[in-house]
Amino acid sequence: MAFATGQLNDPQVIGAGERYGAVQVILSAIVFENLLKVGRFAKLAAGSIDNMDGIAAPVIAGVVLRNPAAPVESGATIDNTIYSQMDYMREGLATVDVKAGQTPVQFGAVYASNAGDANDGLATATGTDIATGAEFIQEIKPNVWLVRLK
Prior knowledge:
mainly beta; nine-stranded antiparallel beta sheet; 11 strands; globular
């Protein structure tokens, strides 16, 4: 059976939760909420990396990264009954999901939605949301942007 390409040593990016470049600060956690959402901002709560959930004044941990070895079919969540650790980016370039209806601008500030709904953790350009310390760099595809965490 012939394949369309030869061996690729470079995993291909598929959307949010991807790392870009070679200079990053990526941390791993063994304590994390089940079904942690990839490509969204997560919070640190009592030593655990958790999804944003509307809690007042959350501590932003960073962007939850996709495990390149995980099957794409598993969706954009990390199941802690299957995986014993997860990675999240504190500094560097990563892709994030952006809340629908937002109009980010290049080099504009990135905020995280934290209203206690399905949009929690999504990047926004709305100054009344939670500040992340990141900036928008460029649109990768609709509702997915490359951001620089600093």
